[in-house]
Amino acid sequence: MKHRLSILLLLVSYAAITCGQIVFPSPNQVEMKKGKLTLRKNISMYTADTTAFYVSLLRSEVLRNSSVKWQSNASTAHICWMNDPSLPPEGYKISINPKQMTITASGERGFIYAVQTLRQWVSGPAGKLTFAYADITDSPSMQWRCFMLDSGRQYQRVSTIKKYIDMASLLKMNYFHWHLTEGLGWRIEIKRYPRLAQIGGSVGKAEEQHGFYTQEEIREVISYASQRNITIVPEIDMPGHAEAALSAHSELGCFGLPVEVPQHGFTQNIFCAGKDEVLTFLKNVLDEVCELFPSPYIHLGGDEAPKGNWNKCEDCQKRIAALNLKDSHDLQLWFSAQMANHLKQKGRKAIFWGDVVYQDGYPLPDNTVIQWWNYRGHKDLALRNALKHNYPVICSSNYYTYLNFPLTPWRGYAKERTFDLKDLYLNNPSNKACNEKNPLILGMSCALWTDDVVTERMIDQRLFPRIIGLAEQMWYQGEPLDFTRFYEHVLQKKEWFEQQGYEFGPALKSEVPQDYKWD
């Protein structure tokens, strides 16, 4: 009996250690070993570059500012950083044994992700840090792993943008899609046209709807993200969702008249495609955008652009006739092609929402990428049409990657626009499409749109814990855990994420209290 009790205690102890080492997203290969490496206040470290950001990230987030002594010999260090060019660009290995911890990668990206894993692996107070013995080998399933934040409808402070860049890097995402222009706000300073931000940044009437980002602030955000292996992809929406811009420059619309800014949804007031001066204006805007953002990708929107004004506009109708276009949808394709070709001259790719490929028409250039979103309205039509035309695709179906959809009805979100962690984990159309392993499918994005006035204080409870499930799908290459076990792991990790400053909302519809307030 005593012997059995000892074995049971040993098993419970080992289970506690392994439970404590839950990492999201899950590493692809983990070989656990018995024992743990304990590092005390004075830690020795070997690296070829003591100034690298990943070293300072390890020191601040894992070693908790313990003192570090640099070693010239790898074999004598507690922590050793080693380069291995044979590893994938974002892959890494971690080996923790009684002698030392060795972190191996082919470059900065892999080292960053190794640190993000170690942040969740370490246990114990500062001054006595413990790391369970293990060999970890890891690399991503998807090339494109993205979080999108809508700063167009709602303005967020720069510190808030950085908070969610930190989150994206922690969850091993490598793109941050920044939605910067919208009917309710133009958030990017354009030096050539200052009225865009000065007027267009203040057209909203609700809380946190006034503001824009100076070019200096944008450069600061880009640099912050780059250190964390995040590429910022800016979105300048055109021709639709343009009411804020048209408030500042009414001449960019079809009729040159003042526009009403909708507090919800969108209107017929879009950029005029028939006037050459409008195209010149928007190309000048994109010139400044490209000067600011080093991203190979610039998002040009293209969704929800009603054509009522174009159908009445003499300039638009003349353009359709002169180019022998079929209709106003064809005119949008032509307009989109002009903007994409302008980006192509600068060596950039143009991303468009899937609306542009619902119908065939004027050909888009070969630097076009399609972002599939409207599963609710059109199922996988945009995905299939894009693949048919050999356009690369980013999957971000509103079922189930739009995290503004709450778990239960709220304001403009009826029951059919709700989902929970289980829905996305088991039935995400974007994940199913990515699992087809079509080389044209780049990967997945998830989004937080700020419709219906989602202010800063509301963001976390919409993202967490559902975004953990999406990160798992983007990264992990192995056989998914069954949902019950996955959810158990999420609950075990909840306190850790909250310690990092991210507040959890409910995970399952069945858990939402009747009086729960999403705002």
UniProtKB/TrEMBL annotation:
<dbReference type="Pfam" id="PF00728">
    <property type="entry name" value="Glyco_hydro_20"/>
</dbReference>
<keyword id="KW-0326">Glycosidase</keyword>
<protein>
    <recommendedName>
        <fullName>beta-N-acetylhexosaminidase</fullName>
        <ecNumber>3.2.1.52</ecNumber>
    </recommendedName>
</protein>
<dbReference type="InterPro" id="IPR025705">
    <property type="entry name" value="Beta_hexosaminidase_sua/sub"/>
</dbReference>
<dbReference type="InterPro" id="IPR015883">
    <property type="entry name" value="Glyco_hydro_20_cat"/>
</dbReference>
<dbReference type="InterPro" id="IPR017853">
    <property type="entry name" value="GH"/>
</dbReference>
<dbReference type="InterPro" id="IPR015882">
    <property type="entry name" value="HEX_bac_N"/>
</dbReference>
<dbReference type="GO" id="GO:0004563">
    <property type="term" value="F:beta-N-acetylhexosaminidase activity"/>
</dbReference>
<dbReference type="Pfam" id="PF02838">
    <property type="entry name" value="Glyco_hydro_20b"/>
</dbReference>
<feature type="active site" description="Proton donor">
    <location>
        <position position="304"/>
    </location>
</feature>
<feature type="domain" description="Beta-hexosaminidase bacterial type N-terminal">
    <location>
        <begin position="23"/>
        <end position="138"/>
    </location>
</feature>
<feature type="domain" description="Glycoside hydrolase family 20 catalytic">
    <location>
        <begin position="143"/>
        <end position="477"/>
    </location>
</feature>
<dbReference type="InterPro" id="IPR029018">
    <property type="entry name" value="Hex-like_dom2"/>
</dbReference>
<dbReference type="GO" id="GO:0016020">
    <property type="term" value="C:membrane"/>
</dbReference>
<dbReference type="GO" id="GO:0030203">
    <property type="term" value="P:glycosaminoglycan metabolic process"/>
</dbReference>
<keyword id="KW-0378">Hydrolase</keyword>
<dbReference type="GO" id="GO:0005975">
    <property type="term" value="P:carbohydrate metabolic process"/>
</dbReference>
<comment type="similarity">
    <text>Belongs to the glycosyl hydrolase 20 family.</text>
</comment>
